[in-house]
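Long-time lurker. I teach an intro course on protein structure, and each term I like to show students one example going from raw sequence to a predicted 3D structure in token notation. This year I'd like something fresh instead of my usual example. Would anyone be willing to generate the tokens for the chain below so I can use it in lecture? Attribution to the forum is fine with me.
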Amino acid sequence: MNILQTFMSLMNSGGPLMWVIFSVACIAMILLVWEALHGWILIKNARRDYHHLRFKPNHLPPPNNRISPIMQLLAMINWSETQSKEAIAKEINIHLAEITPKMEGSLATIAILGSLLPMLGLLGTVTGMINVFEAIALHGSGKPNEMADGISQALLTTASGLIIAIPVIFLHHILSRRANILMAITHQTIQLILHRNISALKEAYTHDRE
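-- Reply from a regular --
Happy to contribute to a lecture. Here you go:
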């Protein structure tokens, strides 16, 4: 109960912008957790497919597995009309641009939220100082309590915005590096796929669609 009271006291001292900062922080953290789990699953499956294709000459990724990025690409190819490796490579390049945003997920949104948090803190600083100057204009320096409220609001919002933004930006950097690793593994796996027998590929994935 004391923790809740302390939390509510801080939120009230920081003014309405503290609730905005808190809401943005919650959204950012939820997205970070989701992207961490989703990215871990994608990389795990991508590495598995790469390993099998790299060390098992006759292996083909199972057609019913759509979690792996390479399988998403293979599922998009119109196998009935592809007659050469060049045609397959062309379709893969086209569809790769389509699934790249899916692999990156909400990283762009997280980056925006991470940059928004310090600006919200700065806005709280401005509004807090405005309250201080209004108190001075109305009452002079004879009411330190009202001046303290404005200063408290300015400091709390600034500190909160920065404290939350730092881990959000840092974690976004880590997830971005992992997205780059996923893209690299996917490109390597594509090269291995293109060295497979065309007839075997067409038979496996055309049969899956039927």
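Some talking points for your students: Residues 63-126+165-209 form one domain. The CA atoms of residues 125 and 154 lie 4 Å apart.
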